[in-house]
Design brief:
mainly alpha
């Protein structure tokens, strides 16, 4: 009798129901299990057999079959394995059915190659981060062709979705041991031998990948100096091959295992050294990617060696390897996982650099507070000229690109002068102070940690408020003075009536896009801070200051001058990049919006405060009562909130993700902040009255 007749769906359903209590036999998912088992057993071609295997795995990962079963709170995975337990009960009760399933598995193993399953799944390619990102993005947009002869491809297709991991996440060693006994019995060693050969091939692939990546130039340049022959990655390749050969011949010894583990530890020490040098010499995404490849190869090989060292009656290492493969297959298609795992170090370095800058914007003493007022007042005075130049460029009738470029250069030059003179522009503070705030959260430990953080939050708040008030008051007053001088010289206001009227309407938060544009400006302020941190990291990684100090121009201008220039570049590179990128983004955003037909513009609180003052001084007095002034002032207030709030929020979110801060810490922080605001609101408006320490006063 043929398999299809002997094991029809109806017969299989009867087999399933026979092992269940009467009250469970009507469960609606049982017929689906019967159909999937029938599809696996009856399939004649490899593609059909693989599809049936995937369908069966999808059914097993479907969650609980019945919800009226009490599950102990300690057994969090009990519901995930109900379906698997039913299948094992059915196979144990019907040996002929178990033999048919084993036959289907045997044919799959005979017709496929398993080396890639153990040696490639979840291990990033050697072509670098951008190539891997492009491959994953392409695979999401364009379906990949099937490769039915590769078990690694089958694993990737089987665990592409998060819910596919339900069963594998809930499996326990005892549960897996039952499946091994049923599907890979001792009296059929060829089943286990096929997987053993695939595992050995995968192990050799991993050894080759680890040696090639570990001895690459980019990693050797940052590792311990020495000959290649003494490299731990080279030694691990040799000890790993010896270990594998001994296992294949059945003579695995503890000495070989100890030698292997010692070489693994040496490799990890070398990777730690490279990682430490990256933190001090600049982050490279390609090197971080290479370290990630090494770490994954080592983790996979350690799991395989644990399986080799364990006996058949020890299912724990087998389960660990199986879960590792499933999770790796799932993560191998995730863009988010790739970006997060490889860019987190770069993100952390950018945040650290911004945090060091942000410390200068936090007033902890009255002396610091007075300095912020003075520096912000100077920044507001300089912004008067920036606002006047902005209106002159806007009224010059230039082509769109030239207008955007001129506006961007106007902003950039103004910001660079601010940096050179040590002046403060309030809207540039949030991205820096948020990074400093997150660094405090990261570095402080113990019971007083949150109190220190709340103190820092209060200091950031009153520092930011002081800088903003000084900026706005001085730029507004300066704009009135500038217009008065202009009228005295030329006999008319700086802005025409039409230009002034347009300014009033454009700043209104009610009948214009001011709210959206102010939030967009906050995003631009945040992005500029990221650019500054990235450029600073790039300069450190490529040793730009050293290259300048050793440049051949030193023979003409003097080596000492080149060393001084290198010091200037090292201290100011981040600020230059932030200011230039911010200026160009502010200037070019409206132009790009017009070019693409998008409603894009910028609303910067300090600049628009100056522009509003120029417009107000240009209008006749009787126009003041029309309500335009009230709406425009309200628009400036909206800019203040959104410029600073959006920039600070985005920067703090970036810092929190870079440092992996816990949600519990953030919740407790919000509670204590609210408590401090209720009990001591003055701390958020003024610094505490205490004398500055001697070193700070100096």
């Amino acid at each position: 009798m043929q398999k299809e007749t002997t094991f029809s769906s109806e017969a299989l359903l009867d087999c399933i129901r026979a092992v269940l209590p009467a009250q469970r036999q009507a469960q609606r998912d049982l017929p689906r299990l019967a159909r999937r088992l029938h599809g696996l057993i009856a399939a004649d071609q490899l593609p059909d057999r693989l599809d049936a295997w995937r369908a069966l795995n999808a059914w097993l990962a479907g969650g609980a079959l019945w919800n009226d079963v009490y599950i102990d709170s300690a057994d969090v995975h009990g519901s995930a394995t109900q379906r698997f337990a039913v299948l094992m009960d059915v196979l144990a009760a019907h040996p002929d059915l178990a033999a048919a399933v084993r036959g289907a598995l045997r044919r799959i193993l005979d017709e496929t190659e398993g080396g890639n399953l153990f040696g490639e799944v979840g291990i990033p390619s050697d072509r670098g981060f951008l190539s891997e990102f492009g491959d994953r993005l392409t695979s999401k947009l364009i379906p990949l062709p099937r490769d039915d002869h590769d078990l690694g491809h089958l694993m990737g297709r089987s665990y592409g979705r998060r819910r596919d991991l339900t069963l594998i996440r809930g499996l326990q060693p005892s549960t897996l041991q039952r499946a091994v006994d049923l599907l890979f019995p001792v009296d059929e060693p060829e089943m286990t031998a096929a997987l053993g050969r695939a595992m050995a091939d995968g192990f050799r692939l991993l050894l080759a990948r680890l040696q090639g990546q570990g001895l690459s130039l980019k990693l050797r340049a940052r590792s311990q100096p020495g000959p290649v022959a003494r490299s731990p990655f080279r030694r691990l390749a040799a000890s790993g091959e010896n270990l594998l050969c001994a296992w294949e011949q059945g003579r695995l010894s503890g000495q070989l295992l100890d030698s292997w583990k010692a070489d693994v530890e040496s490799c990890r020490e070398e990777m730690h050294l490279i990682s430490t040098r990256l933190e001090s010499e600049g982050i490279s995404v390609d090197i971080v990617y290479g370290l990630d490849v090494l770490d994954r190869c080592l983790g996979r090989m350690e799991a395989i060696v644990a399986v080799m060292a364990a006996g058949r009656e020890s299912p724990g290492p087998v389960l660990t390897l199986l879960q590792q493969l499933a999770y790796a297959a799932h993560d191998s298609t995730s863009l988010r996982h790739l970006v997060r795992s490889n860019l987190q170090r770069l993100q952390r370095r950018i945040v650290d650099r911004a945090g060091k800058t942000g410390e200068h914007y936090i007033a902890e003493t009255p002396a610091d507070y007075r300095h912020i007022w003075a520096a912000a007042a100077g920044g507001g005075l300089l912004t008067v000229g920036t606002a006047a130049m902005k209106m002159a460029i806007a009224g010059a009738g230039l082509a769109l690109f030239l207008e955007g470029l001129a506006s961007g250069l106007n902003y950039a030059v103004s910001f660079l002068i601010l940096q050179a003179l040590g002046l403060i522009l309030a809207t540039k503070q949030p991205a820096m102070t948020a990074a400093a705030f997150a660094a405090i959260i990261r570095d402080r430990k113990g019971s007083e940690r949150l109190d220190v953080i709340v103190d820092a939050a209060a200091a950031i708040c009153h520092s930011q408020l002081a800088a903003t008030i000084a900026n706005v008051v001085v730029v507004a007053s300066g704009a009135y003075a500038f217009d008065a001088v202009w009228q005295w010289i030329t006999g008319h206001s700086y802005l025409s009536t039409a230009e002034a009227t347009y300014v009033f309407h454009a700043l209104s938060p009610v009948d214009s896009g001011t709210v959206f544009y102010a939030a967009l400006t906050g995003c631009i302020l945040y992005l500029a801070a990221l650019v500054g941190g990235w450029v600073d990291n790039w300069a450190v990684y490529h040793r730009l200051p050293q290259a300048i100090a050793e440049h051949r121009l030193g023979q003409r201008f003097g080596q000492l001058r080149m060393i001084r220039l290198a010091g200037v570049v090292s201290r100011n590179m981040s600020g230059w990049a932030t200011n230039i990128s911010l200026g160009l983004m502010l200037g070019m955003t409206p132009v790009l919006g017009k070019f693409f037909g998008l409603p894009l513009d910028v609303r910067h609180v300090t600049l628009n405060s100056g522009i509003l003052s120029l417009a107000t001084s240009s209008l006749d007095v009787e126009w003041i009562g029309t309500g335009l002034l009230t709406l425009a002032v309200l628009g400036v207030a909206v800019m203040f909130v959104l410029n600073l709030g959006v920039s600070f929020a985005l920067s703090l979110l970036t810092a929190v993700r870079a440092y992996d801060l816990s949600g519990d810490d953030l919740k407790e922080l919000r509670r204590r902040l609210w408590q401090r605001m209720r009990t001591r609101p003055r701390d958020f408006l003024m610094p505490p009255r205490r004398p500055a320490p001697a070193h700070e006063a100096h």
